[in-house]
Amino acid sequence: MKKVYKDFFLYPDILVMMLLATTLTIYLFIQGFELFMLGWFLFGLIFFMFSEYVTHRFLFHLKPPKNPLFLKFLKRIHYDHHAVPNELHLLFLPLWYSLPNFLVLCAIFYALTGSLTRTVAFGVGLMTMLLVYEWKHYVAHTPLKPKTRFGKWLKKTHQLHHFKNENYWFGVSNPFVDVLFGTLKHEKDVETSQTAKNLEKRGRDITAACHFKDERIENN
Prior knowledge:
Keywords: Endoplasmic reticulum, Fatty acid biosynthesis, Fatty acid metabolism, Lipid biosynthesis, Lipid metabolism, Membrane, Metal-binding, Oxidoreductase, Transmembrane, Transmembrane helix, Zinc. The chain is mostly helical.
């Protein structure tokens, strides 16, 4: 079991993000902690919750693109994870994806507020929720057993996303945005998808269906 924890906390991409979050937190305390920092930190947490859902649903689950480079990107960032859910290096968002996204969001936030301290507090919130996301995702795919009822339920919903139907249960760190968008369902109300383990197949199935339809029209 110790190895399971080491695999997470010593994974290079996770380790870099933890060190960055710790460094930024230390910076805030050196500046002198003020209550408003907590507000921007919480805003960063909430912002990540929504971005996690939107990115997972509308980017990671895009229909397979024709562009080979974009397809390669989606395969690495998510498609392959559905194909091999428990593969360790596919569980985590790669640093080349998460770090630029973090920097861009912080740059936009700084441009809007003009405050480095507020931006850092917001950034720590983003980073903290990213690490929560990575941990919850890791737990969902490893033998680790959550101790709370909520944790067990959250793990189950993510497994349903992988093995029941990929069009529901997008929230990994939390289910709240799923509730808002209507994608949190009882498993008995959702039919089993044939493409949950092969996201690329969705595009091929649709294309094949279109060809079949065209052939029927031509024959008639």
